[in-house]
Amino acid sequence: MKFLALSMFGAASAFAPASPAFTRKSSVQMALPAGVKPILIGVAADSGCGKSTFMRRLTNTFGGETVGPLGGGFDAGSWETNTLVSDLTTVICLDDYHLNDRGGRKVTQRTALDPLENNFDLMFEQMAALKNGETVAKPIYNHVNGTLDTPETIEPTPIIIIEGLHPMHDARVRDLLDFSLYLD
């Protein structure tokens, strides 16, 4: 039933007229027509419950060429990212908004699961900017070594999905969401 709620809106009918005039910006992303705002979907779930798998399947449902993660990954000897991008969707992992790296959390004696370890102000600013069609320099939390890596450039796509433990925790972010889902 939760997935049905997502599949009820087709890519064209949800954010644009039946025959949208989208233009490709690159081989991966489509440019939004002037005045069209992206749909913002929040997906909350506990650690290890399958959010990433669900996000890959959801991205495939909306179609388009999929790349990811951005940033080169480990094979290129570069920094890692949690962002998944296709022609129509961008999936942002909210772990990227951790305030501290692993070393910093040892000092604060909080886990990454604690809402106090998240930068909700930056998350709100960047989600509002993306919803308004603006490009952002999104932080990256590197799960392999526990560091905060160099930010990556994220351009808005027609559908932006934010996933993590706390996408609905902050009322400002919650108010930006067009759809909210909780995965059990």
From TrEMBL:
It is an enzyme of class 2 (transferase). It catalyses: D-ribulose 5-phosphate + ATP = D-ribulose 1,5-bisphosphate + ADP + H(+). GO terms for molecular function: ATP binding; phosphoribulokinase activity. Keywords: ATP-binding, Calvin cycle, Kinase, Nucleotide-binding, Photosynthesis, Signal, Transferase. Pathway: Carbohydrate biosynthesis; Calvin cycle. One of its GO terms (biological process) is reductive pentose-phosphate cycle. Its EC number is 2.7.1.19. PANTHER family: URIDINE KINASE (PTHR10285). This is Phosphoribulokinase, chloroplastic. It comes from Minchinia chitonis.
